[in-house]
Predict the 3D structure of the following.
Amino acid sequence: MPRETSPGAPPSDGAHRPELKTSEKPSERDRSVDNGAVVRARWAITAVFFVNGLLMASYIVRIPSLKETLGLTSSQLGVVLTFFGVSALLSMQFVGRLVARFGSACLIRLTLGLLPIALSGVGLAQDAVQLSAALIVMGGVHGTLDVAMNSHAVSVEQIRRRPIMNGCHAAWSISAVLGSLLGATVIRSGVSPTAHLLWVGGLLLAVGLTATRWLLPAVQDRETTPSDGPMTSRTGRHGGWSRPVLLLGAMGLALMICEAAVTSWSGVFLHDSRGATLSAAALGYTAFTVCQSLGRLVGDRLTQRVGSRNLFRANGSITVLGLVTVVVGPSQTVSTVGFGVMGIGTSLLVPLIFSAAGHAGGQGAGAAAFVSRVTTFTYAGILTGPALVGWFAQVFELTWTFAGIIPLMIAVVLGAGAMPAPVPVLGGRRADP
């Protein structure tokens, strides 16, 4: 439980929060939003994450179909897909300025309206050049939306004085699974990529724009005053590249490399190293994804109960335990269980990092700038992780490559001190009914 501290000193991380003192009273921004509007904004931003997950899953599940339909070689497809990631990374660098000018809610409405259209453009592509152009647009829009929706979630957390980031990421994970299952069903039914992506894009365009009506007003997420605390650093001349951002970014990079090892190589590991059949080998990724989604559903309550630092350490340690189980497991069953344990462990780590980055940046544009920098690191991990694991596996074998990730995750656990103290509960009570 936090003790009395001198003015300006950061609260300690703990399971209980005292009532706000006079110096801790909510800002004019916080008081200007009524409780009902905050609750609606909480569910609106969760819906944005859900729609984004469906859109991205619909695209990903159709990549093999696009390769076949357009007659692309594996090398051509690899180059084309790279355009998406590079475009997303570049677009992220400008989101802080855009939020400062227009607010994250406005940016979300614009990009969530454009993303389904860009997805439809992917479905309409007739050759590699058109597909590349569509993916460049889609990557830029998605990168902007990714940062804007995470920074808006931070704004809701700041006003609401309760964590919501894990719930938002849980919505994304669940929708990604649903989108993949729906895509598999559509593919079995013989529906073309063009028809599939056009229908999904049109439906989610309507759903997404409807949900964004209840986001926070633009004036609420354009403030740039950084919050008090040990991690606070003004974005100013550094453009958000501060020491806390670099630390959180490095942790996010390591986590994405770890997740990339599971998503891209868990099946290969179970098949080649544990003798699993091809169908059984797919269970490693399934166990990881299901457990990760379940973990995120309870993440916000756990963050409130035990604090972000303690929770980060605990989940990081669970991830290490899962990795050790994967590596030393004598059978495919034990290793599959290890991947599930890894899913539980990693479920809360990335959302906690995004939330920490946003709170370190302050409000509005400051939060968006910090989130955009950290997202740059995580995307770099997503893009380079599969290749890095493959290169090391070629030299050291896949089992030793997974073992090499263990010290990387231990370093992430040791970085838990970068997590901020918990957001105090407004007036000693819940901020919503």
